[in-house]
Amino acid sequence: MELDLSPKLAKKVYGDNGGSYHAWCPNELPMLREGNIGAAKLALEKNGFALPRYSDSSKVAYVLQGAGVAGIVLPESEEKVIAIKKGDAIALPFGVITWWYNKEDTELVVLFMGDTSKGHKAGQFTDFFLTGSNGIFTGLTIEFVKRAWDLDDDTAKALVENQTGKGIVKLDANVKMPEPKPEHRQGIALNCEEAPLDTDIKNAGNVVVLDTKKLPFVGQVGLGADLVRLEGNAMCSPGFSCDSALQVTYIVRGSGRLQVVGVDGKRVLETIVKAGNLLIVPRFFVVSKIADPDGLSWFSIITTPIPVFTHLAGSIGAWKALSPEVLQASFNVPAETEKVFRSKRANEAIFFPPPI
């Protein structure tokens, strides 16, 4: 049975007052389970507070909209409180405890993508909440809470029973939360919209690659990531991941056409992608995109911290490396046709401007 590669939207899992949590289901997007990849989104309203939790998976978070504050506690480390805003990528290794808070009028939306190979369910994140109606405290008896934290009955009962919210709550506007510290962002967070561009092709597109040099904690997460922005009607060269990595792509903005070619030269997907879509390209499959007039942007994770891609078209395309005789014989064309083919895209790589 062939896998369904068509892009999907996230579905609401929980949330009401204060915000909501949405996830992609491996039953609807089978490549999540096949690739051991999880994907979800957190949306917080003004004064929305995502209660402290830890996950069974390492992740990369990406802020899609708004601004807020995040608390991060690495194993055997003090809490780091960071300001977050649209374009921020945050590396979240195994064992990290996080909380998220929005004090602004604009909704804060954070995307999570990560590796579930060591998780409880393939293709899904499992979060463990420290507090709330489904938190760790509610599973412990009053006696255990008293003994563990050396508390009296009333204090222990309050800790277990007072927080009735599940996962996300709305705080009173007067509640004061910790202030972020700029130095806490170092190594953990990077704004992709402000970072130096790794590739920038005039009138075509650009890319920022998140690797261990830019974001050291990416190495602990075991994932690579990038933000790609295509100009209107521009094209991203057909290419594939040549190190057996999977590429998980979320469409951040705009829309465009996408084609994926798999085994035996079969076009396994031809579709329109738009903001909010998530898709996964299988290992070694070739993918290419053409933006609609308003442009197309996407954020991807790659299941290796140092990804290697082979592009088939452009000045660095794989075809350029092959000798003329091999190309001529492979395509079964005369030398003149091979020369025309080789002469094209001599000064353009990865992204191609729209036809004049």
From TrEMBL:
GO BP: any one term: seed maturation
Record carries keyword Signal: yes
Keywords tagged on the record: Disulfide bond, Seed storage protein, Signal, Storage protein
Cupin type-1 domain segment(s): 3-157, 195-339
Keyword Magnesium among UniProt keywords: no
Example of a GO MF term: nutrient reservoir activity
Database matches in PANTHER family: OS01G0976200 PROTEIN, OS03G0336100 PROTEIN-RELATED
Family classification: Belongs to the 11S seed storage protein (globulins) family.
UniProt protein name: Glutelin type-D 1-like
Organism: Durio zibethinus
